[in-house]
Amino acid sequence: MSKICIVSGDGHAGTKVANYRDYLESRYWDDLKQAEVEERHFLMVTEGQSSFPEEALEAVDGRDAIRSGGQSGGWDPDRRVKEMDAEGVTAEIIHQGHQHATMPFFSITNRPKPPELRQAGAKAYHRWLSDHMAATGGRAYGVADPGPCHDIAAAVEELRWVADNGFVSVGVPGILADSALPPLYDRYYEPFWAACDELGLVLSVHAGWGLEQGLFFKFADMMTAGQTIEEAAQEGKFMAMGEELKKSRRSPNALGMQPRRAMWQLMLGGVFDRYPNLKIAFTEIRAEWVPDTIRFLDQKLPQSGVSLKLKPSEYFQRNCYVAPSSPKVEEIAMRHEIGVDRFLFGSDYPHPEGTWPNTWDWLRTVFVGVPEDEVRMILAGNAFDCYNLDRQKLLAIAERIGPEPSDILDPNHRVSENIIEDFDRRAQFKVPPEVVDTNTLEELVDQDLTAMAG
After folding, report:
1. pLDDT tens digits for range 264-282
2. Does this model's pTM top 0.90?
3. What residue segments make up the domains of the chain, in order of their start?
């Protein structure tokens, strides 16, 4: 019996902003110095998120992965591979950013920047990540940032570069809210969709999509009004804020419905009609929202007067995937409602709310009673299909590092209650599934339908 292959649809990478200097045009180096100041402020906040309490370490850090600095795999490719091997993770789809660094100009963890600077920073990040991916021996696959998209020709040119350099996906335009850009159903983006289709780049919507750049620092500024950053840090405000951000991020309605909005805007805009082979993956925004949302859209959109070739449920089953990082028992139980062939696993490494360094225990907990063939689909098979990965190469790696089926599926395995309690502490593992707010959902869909009609 072959070992189980694990592909994480949600890994993260990024280095200290100072390290992007060699990948950035010299005219932006002074801007990079300011970004270093912003990064120091950011790290004061995330300090409260990036650590495990001592009592948790006793339960979850049996191999000293945390205490020996295992989170450094977020920027150190050698440590990344070491942790992947230890966790039995064959490959990762790499998204930008983590709690140990900001990004060069283009992220929600930066203060607001002009489009030119955001574009330059995204290009620098892509070139750094390309080197990082290569250093993992081809086991990390990048998700590119779409850039500000104020210049679609430049965005398409960058798509061609990333596709030639190991990237398999790109974020959907609108990662950062920008009133200067049209909504996704507008034909303005047609060259972008055409290039993604031609190049085989999967569209990506990750948690945080659609937020305002600088929102993170707005929160910080509110907490430090009348104080210096250092004074606020001494009072513990940043650690407290970090805890609040983490709670809000993992709650059922964590970042609202905005990331999901991309799905129906693409449907309404006919993007999936014109490009039936185009794929989109929704990552780290949970999965329990899918069945009720799709049922609502199936009822709503045919009555809207918009001409669609398929029902929303048919678009979802043909074009869409979900990768709920750190999946919950309830999400796995809903796998057939969601689409068992649409469901990817995400470890969220090196985020502290992820499955690392307890991935096998996490899988033992959520896959109780799930047939082995479905486990294999969710853990790797669907990722192979979504991202067109080298199946044979990754299966061979899995034979070296992966778990035996019995390591995950043997009912005699007992996961310590202390470990499960820590899953809940760091990822709200026991929070009940979201009940979709159909009133808000209808309001947002109506806004889009009205805007399209106008």
Report:
1. 999 999 999 999 999 999 9
2. yes
3. 7-453
